[in-house]
Amino acid sequence: MSIVADHPLKDSLTGLPDLPWPLLQAIAAVADASLGQIAERLRDATIPYIGSSALIIFTEDCTGRPQKKAGAEEIISRVSITELEALRAVVSDETPWFGEADLAGRNRPVLAVKYSPSNAILVITDPKPTSPEPDAGLTVVEYLWRLTARRIQERVTDAPPSYLLESRAASAERVRVTAELTDLHSTTLEILLAALRASALDNAAARSTVTGLAAKALVELRTLSDRTTDSVKEPVARAFERLRDDLRPLTRFSGIEVEFIEPPLNGRALPGEVAHAARAVVRGLVLAMMEQPHVSRVRTQWDCDGENLLINVRDDGRGSLDADAPSIARLDRRVQALNGQLRMDVMPGWGADIFVSLPLDLPARPAEDVAGWNLAARELEVLQHLAAGERNRLIASTLGISENTVKFHVRNLFRKLDVGSRTEAIALAHRHGLR
């Protein structure tokens, strides 16, 4: 519900002239915002208190679009995940941090605030107090940021299946773009190295210096590719540790013991949206179990069979958990959004035992689902590899064809699918279950 200046409730509150209506309207705008609007709404809300050239939110809740930005185009179009990760490492807690940081290619003054529950960070570039009381203004900005970060968590938790599919498509495309840039620049630098090593160049000192710089650039470029890949996948052990951190306050204050059975350390890394959904589902199940009388212990266990994340949550109550309860139904919908399954066994006198299976890959559908595209067998193979986030070189190697042949098939796919980019092709493939 939005609070607007002409709301009928306001007319009935004329005896309260000190109500901060602009702030209340800003809070309502942030609360109502979609994930795509939330950075712009937050910037509008904070400008009366702290001016800025740009506002950036960096959050792991949205695996496909971890950055949410508003403000100067020359900043929001160039800021990188690597820069934001470096800044987040400097900000140790939720205390506002003022300083200078490399953002969008150059050093800038920034205000940064972390939100510990999700490890998200708010970055305001070129901050300038605009409130008559700067300390009070900063407190308001901190409050608005906490509200926004929590709202992002809620929005992602309640996201429809289409958003989750789009998120995975965007993640795969980000990996692909980075991989192709790595190939391009690696080739360029390797040619540069070969030229500088040539005996025809007699300036040994210049050759040695430039060789060292180019070699260093190659290492940094490979490191950037690895970081991008890591940002869309999360080791299962780390994902489980984050779940333990989320539930730690409950174990401390509820008086109910929560037992954690660790997943294998060598389990397959989880796609970001699977890891996030798994934590949300387990949190919801544990809370639902704790609301029952006569529960003293809840056990949660994760495992991975290479294709699925397997979750088991069990309590020692009297078996009063209702499988038709709205909270359980909401969690079941969340599981189904990722093509998973939730099974619940309630045993009177023995408690509830809930099993959840979340596939780590999107399911492949029968070929007849895409028969209308009139794809040749090889074109369909190339599309499946594209949907998995693979770059041209890897596709060529896997299929035993040249990169030029892969590019030829990709052009044909664009024409037959009526799309204009790899991103659109990947999203369309994912909507039809191809992976």
Describe the structure.
- This protein is α+β, with helices and mostly antiparallel strands.
- It has four domains: 8-157, Beta-Lactamase; 161-232; 234-359, Histidine kinase-like ATPase, C-terminal domain (Heat Shock Protein 90, 2-Layer Sandwich); 367-431, Arc Repressor Mutant, subunit A (Orthogonal Bundle).
- The protein has helices at residues 8-11, 21-32, 38-46, 73-76, 81-90, 134-157, 161-197, 204-231, 236-253, 272-290, 326-337, 377-387, 392-399, 403-417, 422-431; strands at 50-51, 54-58, 67-71, 97-103, 106-115, 120-125, 128-129, 233-234, 257-261, 270-271, 297-304, 308-315, 341-347, 351-359.
- The strands form four sheets. A five-stranded antiparallel β-sheet has the order 3-2-6-5-4, with helices on both faces. It has a five-stranded mixed β-sheet with strand order 9-11-12-14-13, covered by helices on one side.
- Strand 11 and strand 12 form a beta hairpin.
- Helix 3 runs antiparallel to helix 6 (134-157), helix 12 crosses helix 14 and helix 13 crosses helix 14 (403-417).
- The longest helix is centred in the middle third of the chain and has 37 residues, at 161-197.
- The two termini are 40 Å apart.
- Mean pLDDT is 80; it is low at 1-10.
- This is Response regulator transcription factor family protein.
- One of its GO terms (molecular function) is DNA binding.
